[in-house]
Every structure is written in C-alpha cells, then in structure tokens.
Design goal:
The complex is a heterodimer. By secondary structure, chain A is of the alpha/beta class. Chain A is built from nine helices and ten strands. Chain B is mainly α. Chain B has one domain. The longest helix of chain B has 28 residues. Chain B is globular. Classes of the chains: A alpha/beta, B mainly alpha. Chains A and B meet through helix 2, helix 3, helix 4 and helix 5 of A and helix 8 and helix 9 of B.
C-alpha cells in the first residue's frame, strides 16, 4: 500500500544553516506519528515543508500518491492536509463559527450550507459550541488552541499536523485535549504531532520520530526510541557516559 | 440539538426602514433643491463610492494602496477616448471605462503584488505617476495641458443643461448605491469569508485553503473597475480633464483615505460616516483657506490616536450596532 505521506531526502537551508537535512519519512493511512526534538531542531520547519509554507531545496514530498513538492499551501489543504499553529492564529474579528467555516468552505471545498452541520459537529466535539458566536480574538489560550484544532478539522483532513498544541495547558485541560485527539484518530484521521509534553504525546501515538539539527536521530516504537541513549542525550540532557 | 444560522441583526432590520426615507429624499432631491445642492450630492456620492472601494482594498484585503488615482485617471481618460475617438455614447462609456481600468489593473497587479506593506503603497503611487506621465504624452487627448469634452458629446448626455445635471445626478446616486451594495454582497458571500480571514491572519487563511493571491487579485480588479467607472463619471461632470487633475493623489487618494480612516476602516458604515464628516468639515472650514487642510490633518491624527477603529467603530462597539450584517450567528433552537 502506498503511504499517505512520504518525504524523500527533503532538505532546506536558511543561508548556511541547514534546518532540514535529508529527512525521509513515511506515514501510513490511519497512523499517528509523534515528533520530538530540542528547540531549534527543525520540527516546525518540517511542518512548514509538509504544508507548503516553505519549499524544500532538495527532495520530494508525496501525499496520497501525488507529488506535492511544488504545490501551494492552499492547494495542499484542499487535498486534505490540516494543521494547527504553534502560536494560535485566530481570525480575531470573526466569530468562532466563521473561523471554522473558512476551513470547511475553502479547504473542504463545500458550500456554506453544506458546511454548516459539519462545522457545528466539530464545535461540539472540540467543546467550543457555547462560544460559537464569540469573536475569536476574545478567546482564552486554551480556547484558542482548541480553535486551532477545530479549524483544521473543519476542512475534513486526511492528515492532521498538530504543532505543540498541549503546551501551557493545565493537567486537566491536557487530559481533555488528549481525549479529543484520540477521538479524532478513532475517526480515521492520520496524525503527526510535535509536542514537548511527552506523556500526552505518548498516549496518542503509534510511532516516534526524533529530530536534531535538522537530521533524523531515531525512529520507531515510542518506548524503544525513548530508551535510545542518543535520544536521552540530546533531548533529556542525560549524559551518554553517565547513563 | 438543532441550530440555525442567522445573518440579520436588529439594527439591520431597523436600517432597512431607515433606508426608505433616505432613498426617497435622494431620489426626489432634484425637485426641491437647486443645481448647487445636486452637484454637492453627486460629489458626496462619488467620494462615498471611492471610499467603499478603498475600504475593500485596504480594510479587508490589506492592500494599502496610495495609487488608486491611477484607475480614476484612467477611467476619466477612457471616457474621453471612447467618446471622442471611438464615438461611444457617454453613458455607455462609463462601464466600459471601468472595464478598461480593470484590464490595465491586471498586468499592474502582477507587478505591484510583488511588493509588501509600505513598499506596496509606494509602488502603487509610482504606477499612478507613470500613467500620468504617459497620458501627458498623448496629444490626441490634450497632452500635458488636457482638454475639454466637445460640445457635441456633452449634448449627447442630454440636450439641456438641466437635463444633463439630472442624468449625472441619478448616475452618481446609482453608482454610490451600487458600490455600497457590491461591497455588502461581496462581504456576505464566501469571498467575504476569505477576505476577512486574510485581513485577520494571512498565513492561517492560506493553510485553511484560501488562495490569498487570487482573492487579493480580484479585489484589486474590482476596485480598479469601480475606480475607473467613478473616474469616468467625475470627468463627465467636470467636462474637462488634464493629467494633473485626473491622477491627483491629493483629491482621489488622500481625501479618500481620510474618509475611510475617520469613519472606520474595515466596516461598510465607515466610509458613509466618513463622507458625511468630511463634507461637513469642508463646508464649515470653507472660509479658512489653508487652515482647512491643517484642521483636517489634525482631526485625522486625533482620530487615529484616540479611535483607531474610526468614529463609526466607537459607536458600533458602544451600542452593538451593525447596519450591514455580514456576520453569521449560531442560534440554538428550542427542542421541538
């Protein structure tokens, strides 16, 4: 079976700095992949390469059996790639409901009328239905993070990219979020999740991918990857010699 | 649980009833006032229409152009060219002038859209200056000194002077109402959803499937079409055109920006309020010479500092007024 997403030797440099260095990666349909890495390792850059905000210098990106390496971001979202932003970017002057409508109408290619019930469903599952008419600019941080997730779901993604969506939340809020994400997975959506809140990440993913200085460091079953001394050294600051 | 999406607001329902007497007054105005008042109302009408176009560009698409005089001038010159050189009837030339402006705006957009923010603003101004200099070279249209519309063409609008004023008056009113209606309907549609999303967060709009470039492009073309048509009307009323008057950054851009900013950028009511304030200030300060510009500038500075959302923004937020509802409200229906 062809993978849903395939990165083949993808590289990206900003001047002399190689932020993504020959990264190859595959994601099967329905799979959930977690990405770990220290700050500045190139995790968000990887997302920007997949969503099209950045174009790779080398390599090839395929989605659903199609070469999307040169495709514009809006065209990729129409193919079914949804993302949340690390720093929430709500459409502040629009209502929460209208924020979702943008994703459903443009990314999901539906008429407003068709999109209506789907948007209301997503609002209900993400716990935002009571805030539907509120201006997105007036939301709290937790609500903004939920809105990021809800907006991405509104376009009916095949692949959902979550960028540090659990950071800054309380333990209870985090638990609720993990519950929502597991429900999304159960509905058949594939997932790539960048997260520093490791216990939250581990409770929702099948496979872990660790990146450092733009290079793949380790990949595989979460427990095995976390036990890898190289991962412990770069990510948790545990000295290899002492370990 | 069932929900319904509502568009109308209480203010918009009241507004519909307010609209009737205002429309009645405007349509009957020629029968109870003189030609001086009619000329003033036409001037207000085209400034309102220009302000709506600029508000669409800057307030929604984030395209802060200071070069819209390019399309007003091109529209004016298109009127002269179409009527004098091609023999098109003057009123039919108005929409054609709009089309001509939009046609020229298309390649222009691909140049100026490469620029961002302040560079875009300067770039659009430079483009307008280039058009002014080019038209000053066209001797068939009067060159640098300009020309008047031949009497035969003026007569083609209507035989008598009163008749002409009446035709121009109603055309002006139609264009102003058309501009407000166009912006309102655009913003209510899915295009409005895309535009408002771009206004608030450009990157997020793109990652949710909005084609930012195309959305901005058609807004730029619509604004050029509007500018061209309004420009043609302006110079049909003035009967005389020159490169300096047609491509005046002061008349067609500074005044229009003042109107939109004072009234409230990013709201349809903004340009309406701004036009009323601008003309009220102008008639109040008519006898003060240069002080007029100084006071106008001071008012603009104070509003920008104290009420960046404009005068209408202050009122709308205070009383939750929305006469042109483009928003959607989710209402939970009682269980059946």
């Amino acid at each position: 079976m062809t993978p849903l997403l395939r990165l083949d030797g993808v590289s990206k440099s900003f001047g002399a700095l190689k932020v993504t260095d020959a990264v190859s990666l595959e994601l099967a349909a329905g799979e959930a992949l977690g990405i770990l890495g220290p700050n500045g390792a190139g995790k968000s850059t990887l997302f920007n390469l997949i969503t099209g905000g950045l174009k790779p210098d080398e390599g090839r990106i395929e989605f659903d059996g199609r070469d999307i390496t040169r495709l514009a971001p809006h065209a990729r979202s129409r193919l079914g790639i949804g993302r949340s932003h690390q720093i929430p970017q709500p459409f502040a002057g629009m209502s929460v409901y209208e924020n979702l409508l943008v994703g459903a109408v443009f990314g999901g290619r539906q008429s407003e009328r068709q999109a209506q019930s789907h948007c209301l469903d997503v609002l209900a599952t993400t716990g935002l239905i009571d805030k539907a008419n509120r201006a997105a600019g007036a939301l709290t941080l937790l609500e903004r993070k939920r809105l990021e997730l809800a907006r991405a779901l509104a376009l009916k993604p095949k692949l959902l990219l979550l960028d540090e969506i659990a950071g800054g939340l309380t333990e209870a809020e985090c638990q609720a979020l993990v519950g929502t994400i597991r429900a999304i997975r159960a509905a058949g959506v594939s997932l790539i999740w960048i997260e520093h809140v490791v216990h939250a990440l581990l409770s929702a993913i099948d496979r872990l991918f660790v990146i450092n200085f733009g290079q793949a460091l380790a990949e595989g079953a979460p427990a095995a990857v976390l036990a890898d001394p190289r991962v412990q050294s770069v990510y948790m600051g545990i000295d290899e010699a002492a370990a | 649980m069932t929900y319904r999406i509502e568009r109308a607001t209480r203010a918009s329902r009241i507004g519909l009833w307010l609209l009737l007497p205002i429309l009645g007054a405007l349509l009957s105005l020629p029968y109870w006032t003189g030609s001086a008042d009619m000329r003033l109302v036409v001037e207000m009408a085209y400034f309102l229409a220009l302000a709506q176009m600029w508000n669409l560009l800057a307030g929604y698409a984030g395209l802060v152009s200071v070069g819209q005089q390019a399309y007003i001038g091109l529209g004016g010159y298109a009127l002269f060219a179409l009527t004098i050189l091609a023999g098109v009837p003057p009123l039919a030339a108005l929409p054609l002038a709009g089309l001509a402006a939009a046609l020229i705006a298309l390649p222009t957009a691909f140049v100026v859209f490469r620029l961002r923010g302040a560079y875009f603003a300067i770039g659009t101004w430079v483009v307008a200056e280039v058009f002014r200099l080019v038209l000053a070279q066209v001797t068939a249209l009067g060159g640098g000194t300009g020309m008047s519309l031949p009497i035969g063409i003026v007569r083609a609008v209507a035989e008598s002077r009163d008749g002409r004023e009446l035709v121009i008056y109603y055309t002006g009113i139609a264009i102003a109402i058309g501009a407000v209606a166009l912006v309102f309907l655009l913003l209510r549609s899915r295009h409005g959803l895309a535009l408002t999303a771009i206004r608030d967060a450009e990157g997020a709009a793109e990652s949710l499937g909005v084609d930012n470039f195309r959305t901005k492009l058609w807004v730029y073309l619509v604004a050029a079409f509007g500018g061209g048509m309004i420009g043609a009307l302006i110079f049909l009323q003035k009967i005389r055109i020159s490169p300096d008057a047609a491509f005046s950054v002061g008349d067609w851009t500074a005044n229009v920006i003042f109107i939109v900013v004072i009234g409230g950028i990013g709201r349809i009511e903004g340009p309406i309020v701004g036009t009323l304030v601008f003309f009220a200030l102008r008639s109040l300060l008519a006898d003060f010479g240069a002080w007029y510009m100084i006071i106008l500038g001071a008012v603009a500075v104070v509003v920008m500092l104290k009420a960046p959302q404009g005068l209408w923004g202050l009122v709308a937020e205070r009383f939750d007024l929305d006469f042109f509802p483009v928003r959607r409200r989710v209402r939970r229906l009682p269980e059946a």
